[in-house]
Design goal:
OB fold (Dihydrolipoamide Acetyltransferase, E2P), 6 strands, single chain, globular
């Protein structure tokens, strides 16, 4: 069941924290460079521009080995996952 939550921190180009969760949320089917890698900061800024401070709809599709929700995420009905893929993070 999708949940609406407010994003409080973007960790990198495919992971963020919400006020309501203990563990971060990772975007499903998005692979952005890690922080410290070439393009990592640019990917983080791209995700921040989409979700920072926003209320997002999180539809968890799996959990990863770090206990993060792997999810499809929307802002105002628009897919954040698709937006990041259009920016080249596949």
């Amino acid at each position: 069941m999708p949940r609406k939550e407010r994003v409080i921190e973007v960790i990198d180009g495919d992971t963020f924290r919400t006020a309501a969760r203990k563990h971060p949320v990772r975007l499903a089917n998005v692979d952005a460079p890690e922080m410290g890698s070439l393009g990592g900061q640019m990917a983080k800024v791209a995700l921040q521009s989409l979700v920072q401070g926003q209320t997002v709809t999180i539809n968890t599709v799996a959990r990863d080995k770090y206990a993060r929700s792997v999810a499809n995420v929307k802002v105002d009905g628009r897919s954040v996952n698709a937006a990041m893929r259009r920016k080249g993070y596949k």
